[in-house]
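Researcher: I'd like a candidate sequence for this fold, 150 residues long. If you have to choose between options at a position, lean toward the conservative one.
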């Protein structure tokens, strides 16, 4: 993980979902979008992925327009195609249709080669009582760590 620069992290996804499996995907971007991502002007909190016509599409990812982009800037919330192998897409179709799981992005990063990659999670939604149990467990662990330090 030495050459990876994390640009955006989706902490809300880990709070709202049980993460079953993760995949690394590429993203089809324009020139001004990748420049804006390198500046860190991206938000993936409200985004999700869907499979349409055998292609993976990401919705709701906001990439702020590049300041020096003028007419080359595109819609900040436009749907973006994700790049996966056909076999992986077939597997994800099975997860989403048969098991009723959702596809949620966890983090967006720039890898060693300078390419923007998205870590996509296959996730199952948490109920309110699951969220309360997670928070209670985290607080208990924090109190134990503090007690061990003293």
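Model: Candidate sequence:
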């Amino acid at each position: 993980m030495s050459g990876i620069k994390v640009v955006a992290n989706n902490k809300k996804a880990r709070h709202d979902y049980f993460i079953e499996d993760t995949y690394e995907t590429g993203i089809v971007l324009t020139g001004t979008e990748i420049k804006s991502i390198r500046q860190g002007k991206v938000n993936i909190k409200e985004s999700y992925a869907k499979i349409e016509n055998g292609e993976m599409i990401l919705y709701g990812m906001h990439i702020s327009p590049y300041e020096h982009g003028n007419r080359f800037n595109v819609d900040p919330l436009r749907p973006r195609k994700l790049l996966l192998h056909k076999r992986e897409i077939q597997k994800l179709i099975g997860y989403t249709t048969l098991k009723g799981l959702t596809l949620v992005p966890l983090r967006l990063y720039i890898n060693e080669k300078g390419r923007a990659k998205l870590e996509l999670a296959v996730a199952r939604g948490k109920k309110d009582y699951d969220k309360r149990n997670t928070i209670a467990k985290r607080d208990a662990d924090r109190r134990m760590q503090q007690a061990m330090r003293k």
